[in-house]
Amino acid sequence: MKKRMIYADNAATTKLDAEAFEAMKPFLLEDYANPSQPYSFSRSAKAAIKAARQTIAKCINAEPEEIVFTSGGTESDNWAIKGTAFVYGDLRATLTTQMEHHAVLRACEAVEMLGFPVVYMRVNSEGVLTPETLRRYITDNTKLVSVMYANNEIGSIQPIQALCSVAHETGALFHTDAVQAIGHCAIDVKELGIDMLSASAHKFNGPKGIGFLYVKHGTPLNPFLNGGAQEAGMRAGTENVAAIVGMATALQKNCSSIDVTQRKMEALEAILIGKLKTESISFLRNGSTNHLPGHLSLSFKDADGEALLHRLDLMGICISTGAACDSKSTKTSHVLEAIGLDESFAKGTIRISFGKDNTEEDAIAIGENLISILK
Ligand code: PLP
Q1: Is the CB of residue 200 below 6 angstroms from any atom belonging to ligand 1?
Q2: Is the distance from CB of 30 to CB of 23 less than 8 angstroms?
Q3: Is the pLDDT at 323 greater than 90, yes or no?
């Protein structure tokens, strides 16, 4: 009999929602017209893009014209960083944190190479950038502050509203990489004061290879891809209509049940932690108390996170050692370094990220298998 797989790596990617898939199908098989064409066959695709933009905007309290479709989180982050640095203006510097995703860090390094200064701010041991720290770093030359909404390795959620206010005090723009948070945490861009926000559909049960960048009206930003007039001339290229529709369907569905899912995730976390504690397994839980629902970064002293991952894999359980994109590298993760985690704990760190399909039985099974390995 085939072993049942337990997937608990939802921070790496999520399962495509069945309704999202159904919504996508017509645009792959029947309504395949290029939405930019003027004939009537294109109407349905054009209308679907318009409706998807409205749906997504509503989910984060933005205006539809403020949503620009991209190929995912990496592109949205690159665009926010480079599009701001290169746009005409007197200010030059970017401020970000040491624990951002590589999509932000590498984009920052690229603008630095072209002579635009970047400062990588320190975070505290819970992986949080405090407004006071930002205030210490910000100067009159700061053009952009880019701080992730929630960290992909340790799940810490940042005080975004307070950080935005500090950025705006000196006239800087505020971008947040909300790839891990959107669809899992309620986000109101107007209330928070965000100028730009990156999102990726495959992290909220949408398809892979599609995302968006929220760009507040009036934000100075260079176009990312030059070519056709799609996306108001800001991001050229024929739209991936099916993926856009799937993303909107998935986001709306996730956002309509954020509270219920959050309670379920908290229950799964409690089961797993409870199991470890009952068996007197000693561990550190990384991140802040305000963290992504269902996200657990656990460090076991002198254990080997890589070995734990593979042993659990043999038992049919998918978890991660850190960031998905880093799991091929055996280097200590830059996030664990940024929070100052001791090497003896950092090496024995695993990330378990529950999703809406996980059950209590999954949490119990993960706990029991983990305990049997650790013992
Ligand atoms: N930002 C964060 C915080 C992420 O976790 C990820 C993916 O792991 C990305 C950006 C990149 O997103 P994508 O896979 O859509 O390019």
Answers
A1: yes
A2: no
A3: no
